[in-house]
Design goal:
About 80% of the residues lie in helices and about 0% in strands. By secondary structure, the protein is mainly alpha-helical. It starts with a helix and ends with a helix.
Amino acid sequence: MKLVAAFLRLIRILNLLFIVITQSLFQYFIVVPMFRNNEVSPALSPGLFILLSLSSVLIAAAGYIINDYFDLNIDRINKPGRIVVERIIKRRWAILWHWLLSFAGVVIGFYVGWKASVFWIGPSNIACVLALWGYSTTFKKKLLTGNVLISLLTAWVVLIIGFVTHYRMITERGVYGFAFASKLLRFTFLYGGFASIICLIREIVKDIEDMHGDAKYGCRTMPIVWGVSVAKVFAGTWLFILTAALLIVFA
């Protein structure tokens, strides 16, 4: 049980659950209702949606594992009591799980792409795996680069659902589906943008919390390069923008 609990902590099981909830809410409260007065069905059947969400979860879980794998020395400083890799799960098993989960996520993505006639789902999953690897090894140590990358990947959780439906509407109905697809695309970017900004704020706050270990191992995050005060102002500004946007949307 200790090993199972450690593995679930390693893959951030609550974060993965949040991905499933986010995609489900967008699919069944935004996308599906838009088809009620339309003679066509959503691009993703319930079965294909479950598989697409599963592929997102598997790739995200693999990303968390590889991040902890490369962050071992930094985590010994920032959160020594919460280390899983090496202390409970050996590094060789961690890297094996990373590749197994990534492979499964990519394969499922190609299958969904084939069944839904959306060829780019599989390649996009490969791009996400490579982006998460690059983030863990390189980009997270660079000023803002890693923060922006993770915020974009977070937005992709929503964007992929909207993009799949948009692509199918355009390819199947042409100009007749353009107005519908455009409306869906606006909702997609709206929700994806909110997810991206929330993640960016969280990433900056996390950099402030982890700056001591990050500084020791050569990371050039915002609080290290520009100072904690600037990082707080940056996060606060985006929080203000997000709050203002929400007030405008629901006004």
